[in-house]
Design goal:
By secondary structure, the chain is an alpha+beta fold. It has 3 domains: 41 residues, no CATH class; 120 residues, FAD/NAD(P)-binding domain; 163 residues, no CATH class. It is 27% helix and 21% strand. The chain has 10 helices and 16 strands. α1 crosses α10 and α2 packs across α9. The longest helix has 21 residues. The radius of gyration is 23 Å and the shape is globular. The two termini are 29 Å apart. The mean pLDDT is 96. Bound molecules: flavin-adenine dinucleotide and iron/sulfur cluster.
């Protein structure tokens, strides 16, 4: 159980959603086909944003609505890219550039949303090419050990500098935050770097006939490269999520045919009765055949709720260093429960694809090595308190995924981090800046 309640976080989720802004993603053919399959597979529509029971739903994204001139032949692609609004070009994961100015780019990453807003206050300075190598501290008679600033290295010149501060916020991510803690010589805490979770993901794809697609969608293609990465999902509290997903052609093909822990499908075909026809990597004529059907392929990304285990961790190497000190080492081994959840979600995904009419189903069996959603290496209640202030170092706050108590059940984690960071900034201001 998280040390703070979901209810406590709701106003901060709402604030983050309004700031980005978050709204329902525009739907492309892949979403339409997914909703058709999910319904046929017996899942009911979740009519609320507060998910407490299993079902499918369109999901909101931090992406501006499509450019209204998208289908207007008077505008070229180049012009559309300079205008406001999503172009549905499906390049989200590689980096969105559609928009007239940096702060109006369609996909609302931190760089184009919070950073321009912070700069507008006039109270923020950005120091590029600076890598923090040490959290500076002192002993205060009243407060005990407290943070007083940072030491940083200029990655271009190699010069070392120091900044002093009334409070320090560490947001270096789940790998670098524990590394920085350890390399700074901050007090030993048995949970620093421990309890790492990932949403051990998998990728299940279905290939459809032209005729079936025309009957369902009115067109003979799914075109997985059109539109935002994902606009629909099935959530199953206790297991995780599976979401319809499309990526740029290279990434999509890599995940579908070439990224697997199961070896080559031809050498190790699926067991009889398995809900997929192919499991693992595909090569040769079989690959050519599948790739010819690429435009009629729909894929689902599985995000399994991961168990929080002490042995999954980030530590630092005792010998190897880079220019910023001992390097981090990541150790992850999924538990039997995590594997079971992932398998069950893969079966549900295959069923949705099959009900939608897929004739061939491919389960990639993706390796754990691509750590997609890392969380909980500096857990609330263990390393930081409920205000996200370090329990052993006053005035040191943490505001990244690492403070999550666990893998939050499987949903994509960033909005929770942003909501929590919004709350942390309030707590910090109240504690050290007279509100
Ligand atoms: C392929 C992919 C797809 C994803 N898609 C989604 C999605 O659809 N939805 C979602 O919610 N999440 C998604 N995520 C996860 C999302 O990227 C993370 O949840 C989020 O970025 C984590 O934020 P963070 O602040 O913890 O860490 P980061 O975003 O990693 O930020 C840490 C920052 O600190 C900097 N840094 C590190 N060490 C130092 C140092 N010592 N000094 C100075 N700076 C330092 C790093 O350069 C980095 O900019 C995806 C991740 C991947 C890899
Ligand atoms: S589809 Fe993705 S990359 Fe393309 S404009 Fe929309 S948000 Fe940006």
């Amino acid at each position: 159980m998280w040390p703070i309640s979901y209810r406590e976080l709701i106003p901060y989720y709402e604030k983050a959603e309004a700031t980005l802004p978050v709204q329902f993603a525009p739907l492309a053919p892949k979403e339409e086909l997914f909703f058709y399959g999910a319904k046929k597979a017996g899942w009911s529509l979740i009519p609320t944003l507060d998910v407490v029971s299993p079902g499918y739903r369109p999901h909101p994204n931090a992406i501006l609505p499509p450019n209204p001139h998208l289908m207007d032949p008077n505008y070229s692609m180049d012009q559309l890219y300079e205008m406001e609004g999503c172009t549905m070009k499906g390049n989200c994961i590689n980096g969105c550039t559609a928009g007239p100015t940096v702060d109006r780019i369609a996909k609302r990453g931190t760089l184009v949303s919070y950073i321009p807003l912070a700069l507008k206050t006039g109270n923020v300075a950005i120091r590029p090419n600076s890598f923090t190598i040490k959290i500076l501290t002192e002993h205060d008679p009243k407060e005990g050990l407290r943070a007083t600033g940072v030491q940083f290295r200029d990655t271009w010149t190699g010069e070392i500098g120091e900044l002093s501060a009334k409070a320090v916020v560490m947001a270096a991510g789940c790998i670098e935050s524990p590394r920085l803690w350890i390399n700074s010589g901050l007090p030993h805490n048995a949970w620093v770097g421990r309890g790492l979770t990932i949403h051990y993901f998998d990728w299940v794809s279905g290939i459809f006939d032209e005729k079936d697609l025309t009957n369902i969608l009115g067109i003979p293609f799914v075109d997985p490269f059109v539109g935002a990465t994902s606009g629909g999902r099935v959530d199953i509290p206790g297991l995780g999520s599976t979401q319809v997903s499309g990526l740029s052609p290279g990434l999509h093909s890599f995940l579908t045919y070439g990224f697997s822990d199961a070896g080559y499908n031809a050498l190790n075909p699926p067991e009889p009765g398995a809900p997929w026809n192919i499991r693992g990597r595909v090569v040769g004529p079989e690959l050519k055949e599948l790739m010819m059907n690429y435009r009629r392929t729909m894929s689902m990304l599985i995000l399994a709720d991961d168990e929080t285990l002490y042995h999954n961790r980030v530590t630092v190497d005792p010998l190897l260093k880079d220019e910023h000190g001992p390097i981090p080492v990541v150790y992850y081994k999924p538990s039997a429960k995590t594997l079971q959840r992932r398998d069950q979600l893969a079966k549900y995904s295959a069923e949705i694809l099959q009900k939608a009419g897929a004739k061939t189903i491919i389960r990639s069996d993706s390796p754990a090595g691509w750590l997609l959603h890392i969380e909980s290496t500096m857990r609330m209640g263990h390393v930081v308190d409920t205000n996200c202030e370090a329990m052993q170092v006053k005035r040191l706050f943490i505001a990244d995924n690492s403070v999550h108590y666990n893998g939050i059940g499987g949903p994509n984690p960033t909005l929770t981090t942003q909501a929590l960071a919004t709350r942390t900034s309030e707590k910090l201001a109240e504690a050290y800046f007279s509100g």
